Amino acid sequence: MNPKVDDYLGRIKNWQAELEKLRALLLECGLTEEYKWRVPCYTYGGANIVLFGNFKESCTLSFFKGVLLNDEKGILELPGENSQSVKMARFTSLQQIVDLEPTLKAYVFEAIEVEKAGIKIEKAKSKKLEFPEELLNKFEEDKAFKEAFEALTPGRQRAYNLHFTGAKQSATRTSRIEKYTDRIMNGIGINDCVCGHSKRMPTCDGSHKYL
After folding, report:
1. In angstroms, rounded to a whole number, what is the distance separating the alpha carbons of residues 26 and 11?
2. At 52, is the pLDDT very low, low, confident or very high (cuts 50, 70, 90)?
3. Is the model more confident about 152 or about 18?
4. Is residue 109 located within the same domain as residue 79?
């Protein structure tokens, strides 16, 4: 048992009993308990297998190579539409975890076998983004901005582009671009907080101030 996980569980305010149960379950599967990205992470032979996290409305158990699991019970879901590897199980009660304990352990053992076999995930190549005219104009007017945008990770570029193109009016698209110019110039994603973590990951517990 990793003392950093003890500290983590001592700090959280919700789903404590559920996460304690998940912790015991994962340790019973013979995984090594570590603490990465400010959340408990469980590994096998140095490879990441699964991690858990707490959100306002649920707690989750995320398998790093979840898309390779059979998921016979249909309990796993993608954390986002662009996810190509991780799949998670979501819980809203301790009884759910108790009822699914045999299944969850079976999934963990399957995930370990996937890692032992060295199976890799073939990730689809990202489609080339189609930028709105307002963003292309901004690139033309401000070369430094263009360089900063292109330096962002593909995921951050895609997230900004979705937000910009989501506006129906040209004026709104321009306003959104101007609003996020400083963040882009500083290499910060639209879903990042000041500590650099994504709002969508269980690394931020809501105590951080978002820009």
Report:
1. 20
2. very high
3. 18
4. yes
Amino acid identity of residue 61, one-letter, is: L
Residue 51, strand partner residues: 41, 62
Mean pLDDT of 94-106: 97
Is 32 found in the same domain as 75? yes
Helix (H) or strand (E) holding 185: helix 181-185
Q: Are residues 31 and 112 in the same domain?
A: yes
Q: What is the mean pLDDT of the chain?
A: 88
80 vs 205, more confident: 80
CATH number at residue 100: 3.90.1150.200
Domain ranges, residue 83: 3-116
Length of the chain as a residue count: 211
How many structural domains is the chain composed of? 2
Among residues 59, 82, 116, which one ends one of the domains?
116
| pLDDT category of residue 26 using cuts at 50, 70 and 90 | very high
Query: pLDDT tens-digit profile of 28-45?
Result: 999 999 998 889 999 999
Q: At what angle do helices 154-165 and 133-141 cross, to 10 degrees?
A: 120
- Indicate the residue among 66, 81, 116 that finishes a domain: 116
